Amino acid sequence: MKYFLPLTDPILEMVDISVKLSGLQILDSVSIGVPQGTVTGLIGPNGAGKTTVFNVISGFITADSGYLKVDGKKQKHVQPHHLTRKGIARTLQGVGLFPTMSALENVMIGGSSQVRSGIIAQALAMPWTDVEQNRLRAQSMAVLGELNIADAANRLPGELPYPIQKRVALARALVSDPQVLLLDEPAGGISAADISELADLIRSWVPKRTVLLVEHHMELVMEVCDLIWVLDAGKVIAAGTPDEVRRNPAVLAAYLGEDGAT
Amino acid sequence: MTTFIDYLLGGLGSGAIIALMALALVLIWRSTRVVNFAQVGQAMFTTFIALSIQTWTGSWYIALIGALAAGAVLGVIVQYLVLRPVKRNDTSGAIIATFGVLIALQAAAGMIWPGGSQAFPQPFNNSGIEFAGRVWPISIYDFVVIGITALLVLGLTLLFTKTSLGLSMRAAAFNPEVARLSGVRVSRVLTFGWALAGSVGAVAGVLVAPVSTISPNSFDILLVFAFTAAVIGGLDSLIGAISIGVFAGLVISLVSGYSDSGNAPVVALLLLALNLILKPEGIFSHHKARSV
């Protein structure tokens, strides 16, 4: 059975997406939508297929069937390096920072799609490439400042506490000024106080941006999300507001087993 | 002591050339995790092209520029035709492919430029300079070699640290998937890396040719020294390749001076073995360990 939820103004839609990897059905006719200007959660037990959803949206995995729509436009052959140009940025589980590059350089990489000069012009250090580089540096510093970590700009990731590294990873996603942010377990490995700050931060981005959040920390999900989709074993089993999802017997069964649901 | 200093001075020029070739190997390793054993074959081929250009035009400068361009083009051709079709993550397959390219280039050069070893014209005076009442074992040409190497190193340092392209190259080398997600066009950046390494190797070839001769196999020994320098330097470290490359030139000069030049490759391999036992990740590596 396909789960259906009427959505108004979805900026991101997956329609009937199926993915089979190594003979296993990872996603089975998954249809989900992310309304513009909301924080939408994507939850489910381990192995439910949440990260695969992100990988399909990012272009790392090609769906066997179904399609993706961004801002109402059907997408063909999404390429990971085109994602930020489409106004979508993604963070990874963990931090995924480049260890030999400073925090500022890590953030600047997130703005790569804004660099318009060609490879040859950059290699020959043409004057206009300096202008672009300086603009990107200033923009990256501004985002680090917004996240209150400007003083970490010249430090290597390994010299920074883990919560600060997480913020650098967020800054790298934000520097491209995305319309849609895909956050993959942003609360993983950080303290309760940091999670509370993270919740405020995520809510501060909407409605200007839209957030699709994969997270195991249920308190955070219930606090920040306007809408939640629940996956289990590659299928959508529920969707609704946090209160609706919290009370849904199918969700309880998926998380706690049949006994927990009764 | 004077003899010792003379041997050191005499090794600076060859050290700079080894450093350049090691640099070319490191540029490819950083971006693809493949040791490109075809690098000396590419350098040999482009040096023959440079020799042809010099014969036609009579200008060493035009020959050098021609070699730079030919090195870039050949690097891209090798990447597109040979390395790209090899399955990603099949490192051993890629390394074997580079050996295949080396053999193919040597065979092709033998057919295109027959006649065995050929002399490359001396662009600058290669006799020892006279200073303070004696002749020193370093020539104007050695200074030109050292100067060009220094300029290339400076240019590469600025490229990697001050430009978006350099940042993209570093990101793509470390984690191509994260780089892609951040908007980096990794395949283009990798292609540029192959072109860049091809050009750097070509410069090394054109610089070494006037002090030796050129034949399809004449750069093989350069591969031994450059590979040794790149591995001891840390394989992913540009500064390691340069420092150990120059150091290798000095060691070779000392070994050749105090014993016999035929012992130099043996000493290089001994240093390589010692390094792999004591510090397998290399002296300047960012990584804590590397499987060998």
Q: Which strand order does the major sheet of chain A show?
A: 6-7-8-3-9-10
The chain pair with the largest interface is: A-B, 35 and 27 residues
Question: Quick one: CATH superfamily of the largest domain in chain A?
Answer: P-loop containing nucleotide triphosphate hydrolases
How many β-strand runs of chain B? 2
Instruction: Identify low-pLDDT runs of chain A.
Output: none
Please give the radius of gyration of chain B in angstroms: 19 Å
CATH structural class of chain B: Mainly Alpha
Order of strands in the sheet with the most strands of chain B? 1-2
Task: Provide the number of structural domains of chain A.
Answer: 2
What does this structure look like?
The complex is a heterodimer of chains A (262) and B (292). Chain A has 262 residues and is α/β, with parallel strands linked by helices. Chain A has helices at residues 50-58, 103-109, 119-123, 127-146, 162-174, 192-205, 218-224, 242-247, 249-256, 258-261; strands at residues 10-21, 24-35, 39-43, 65-70, 73-75, 88-90, 180-184, 210-214, 227-232, 235-240. The radius of gyration of chain A is 19 Å and the shape is globular. The mean pLDDT of chain A is 89. By secondary structure, chain B is mostly helical. Chain B contains 11 helices and 2 strands, in the order ααααββααααααα. In chain B, α10 crosses α11. The radius of gyration of chain B is 19 Å and the shape is globular. The A-B interface holds A 58, 60, 79-81, 83-85, 90, 92, 96, 98-101, 105, 108-115, 117, 119, 122-123, 125, 129, 132-133, 136, 172, 176 and B 158-159, 162-165, 167-168, 170-171, 174-175, 177-186, 188-189, 192, 196, 286.
